[in-house]
Amino acid sequence: MISRKLLSSLLIIAVLLPIALSVSWGVSQLLAAMQDWKWAAIVQRTGLAVAVVWVVVLVSLLLALGINAVAADTRSDESPDS
Question: Is the pLDDT of residue 80 over 90?
Fold first, then answer.
């Protein structure tokens, strides 16, 4: 069974990373409009890294919730019926 603290952390990170991704994309576009191509590319690559981490967190959250659901289902099957 996965701890509630880990599930809460994954959920919070999964909610905050798209915000960071949006900010990164906006800053990259702003820098490109100011013709600062070097930093625009750096911030864009950072945004790509954030997107990859976001996908990993979403998959981890999905797997953790699946493990919890299976564990809860197994426990309910093992309980004696009244």
Answer: no
